[in-house]
Amino acid sequence: MRQSQLFTKTRKEAPKDEVAKNAQLLIRAGYIHKEMAGVYAYLPLGLRTLNKIVGIIREEMNAIGGQEIFMSSLQRKELWEVTDRWDDAKVDNWFKTNLNATAEADGKRGKELGLGFTHEEPITNMLEQFVSSYKDLPFSVYQFQTKFRNELRAKSGIMRAREFLMKDLYSFSKDDASHEDFYEKAKQAYIKIFERVGLGEQTYVTYASGGSFSEFSHEFQTITDAGEDTIYLCPDCRLAINKEIIEKQSVCVGCGGKELDEHTAVEVGNIFSLGTRFSEALNLMYVDEHNKKKPAVMGSYGIGPGRVMGTIVEVLADEKGLVWPKSIAPFAVHLVSLGNVGETASQLYQSLLDGNVEVLFDDRDASAGVKLADSELLGMPTRVVISPKTLERQSVEVTDRATGETELVPLTGLMARL
Amino acid sequence: MRQSQLFTKTRKEAPKDEVAKNAQLLIRAGYIHKEMAGVYAYLPLGLRTLNKIVGIIREEMNAIGGQEIFMSSLQRKELWEVTDRWDDAKVDNWFKTNLNATAEADGKRGKELGLGFTHEEPITNMLEQFVSSYKDLPFSVYQFQTKFRNELRAKSGIMRAREFLMKDLYSFSKDDASHEDFYEKAKQAYIKIFERVGLGEQTYVTYASGGSFSEFSHEFQTITDAGEDTIYLCPDCRLAINKEIIEKQSVCVGCGGKELDEHTAVEVGNIFSLGTRFSEALNLMYVDEHNKKKPAVMGSYGIGPGRVMGTIVEVLADEKGLVWPKSIAPFAVHLVSLGNVGETASQLYQSLLDGNVEVLFDDRDASAGVKLADSELLGMPTRVVISPKTLERQSVEVTDRATGETELVPLTGLMARL
């Protein structure tokens, strides 16, 4: 894409009320726009990155057999009363609304609806019609959907928003063994996802409380000062334990090690065995091999692509701006023309497009200082500068955004280098 | 995909409270689930079709230079008060909610928010930071986003939902000439979209009232008894006129023809010149070539992919079930194995996958009657039956879902035939 066509512009300052580093940088770079506290719009560059994260998650969910669906945000009060999750005293972050609030006519004025903060209830309820026999199990469904959470505080940018995209997968199995089998597959898929988006090194499978149906659940915690959690890392087995667990047992859950390192971290994903809590309450039953009626065993598995994106900014960005791993960068290459090289630069841009390179072309009529500073703020993995000086040597200057390493590359060898 | 793995099942009857043909068939075929009146979930087959419609629209919006973004559903009351669209007496289909409804702590209890029914206000407001000069214009932005409309009645299935996906594009130009230029491009893009999704023949560019800033706007109306509108068709110039216009002037807007045919139709898209209504109210100004401050000239362009999907069902489905055009079918081919042909059928399935054919493989252990009836209900464009009888002749039976035409095709020639 030609940058002169892009409607967004960089800015020197983030809004004064924005305290999170991720949102400050993303706003300055024109990736997102702050609509209000905890509510952000994704602009072209930001949406490209968000969609690449979504694409990676989708591939890994499909690889473990997940079937993609799309539920609704509007939720029936009745369903959530069954599991005792409607009352604001029990769940304090509901956004609620009213059906036909303004229509006096049909007697439905004031009927309360919720805006989904999660989807166990409607999904379990919906599946009742499709599950009757053990032969229908196991399977899993997932969606990418907007969740609404009426958070008291929203000071972490896109890492904790009041309206945000979430991938939530739900698994349904006939018994614990079958459930554990899928749960382990999902755990491996999550590990792959965080590796693929560039957070593998900083992200730890973390033991957390399991609720009534299993000893542990697992969080995926990424170490960053911007996190709101504390985890305890075992240097011996590379496992982590969250605060709740460590308060009960002060040793490593994996190896019993006693020397644990305390870190601040953000929960970028979690997987949880739900047991039969929802299937019993909402009647998701099947008939087993011996003609006995049983509730399905469930699990839930969440990742917020926006939170992942914000975390990547917190972990990888530097004082000059954003730094994207190639797998999720809006564009792989930022081609920057300096000085009077219009025609040659355009030809190079076209040849990169022809070679299927995802390239943002800064063809703007601006100073070298502005263009290079913007390029660092925008953070594409590879910058290619073309200028009269580089052309003297039939070359371009290729810079790695993460390391800052620069080399002159002959025009003829650029495609191979990229 | 193997149908034995698909968690959805067909059903004989739609829910009793569902009166729309599109929703009845889509529910029976397991494409959608009714969450409540006017609110539907999309299941794997339905989501595949919805996403194909989205993909076609996205391609055509990109082709006219649209830049994709993603705004928020939660909306600030203040923005909508500026244009006098907050008051329920002015806009009666708002869903509204409250920030921190349950949080007593921060004094914000009860602060009202809206759930976007459209996005002119927040988009215009956001763009103020990016537009300053005539050099920044023209451009256009679009999104695929969930809209919430608190409709009094919701009896048309996914053709009129209370929560639904919408593609809304907004254009920004420096003057009327530049605006008209884009408006015409968008009109042509819309014509292409309806052709590509299979509604070209039944869909008419329809003259509608233009509001304060232009004589006409344009609706795209598809002729179907399931529609809620009446249009008047000119057989001479293939234009249509909506009821509002025809009440003012009873002749064809295009050629002055007086013999117009009355039809029931559904509005599947619309394009509208907004003039400077929103840019003046929300201060989207630019400085022109003569250093004069002027408001941007805007247009808005909407299509609801779910409504398009419902309309296609209304127009193309028959008494046996759904009938999808190939461009938007969940799968191009429905491979159905009858009788004891498991191994050969699996090999054929694999060879179709290897040939990049999108294929749903009915490998279920069910009767021929059930499998063939399900295949007609699901509506893939091409059905391939493999059975001991067809294999006697080293062939499969290929049936076109729309025409019912059937022929025996040798296994060796199937890929070429598809």
TrEMBL record, chains A, B:
Pfam family, one: tRNA-synt_2b
Alphabetized GO MF terms: ATP binding; proline-tRNA ligase activity
Keyword Aminoacyl-tRNA synthetase: yes
UniProtKB keywords: Aminoacyl-tRNA synthetase, ATP-binding, Ligase, Nucleotide-binding, Protein biosynthesis
Signal peptide: none
EC code: 6.1.1.15
Residue ranges of every copy of the Aminoacyl-transfer RNA synthetases class-II family profile domain listed in the record: 38-325
Record InterPro entries: aa-tRNA-synt_IIb (IPR002314), aa-tRNA-synth_II (IPR006195), aa-tRNA-synth_II/BPL/LPL (IPR045864), Anticodon-bd (IPR004154), Anticodon-bd_dom_sf (IPR036621), Pro-tRNA-ligase_IIa (IPR002316), Pro-tRNA_synthetase (IPR050062), ProRS_anticodon_short (IPR044140)
Catalysis performed (reactions): tRNA(Pro) + L-proline + ATP = L-prolyl-tRNA(Pro) + AMP + diphosphate
A cellular-component GO term for this protein: cytosol
One Gene Ontology term from the biological process aspect of the record: prolyl-tRNA aminoacylation
PANTHER family tied to this protein: MITOCHONDRIAL RIBOSOME PROTEIN L39/PROLYL-TRNA LIGASE FAMILY MEMBER (PTHR42753), PROLINE--TRNA LIGASE (PTHR42753:SF2)
Name of this chain's protein: Proline--tRNA ligase
